[in-house]
Amino acid sequence: MKALYPGSFDPPHLGHLELIRRAAALVDELVVGIAVNPDKAPYLAIEQRLELLRADCGTLRNVSVVSYQGATVQAARALGAGALLRGLRNANDLEAEQAMAMVNRANGFETLLLLSSSEHLHISSRLVRLTADAGLDLAGLVGPRVAAALRK
Question: Can 40 be counted among the known catalytic residues?
Answer without folding.
Answer: yes
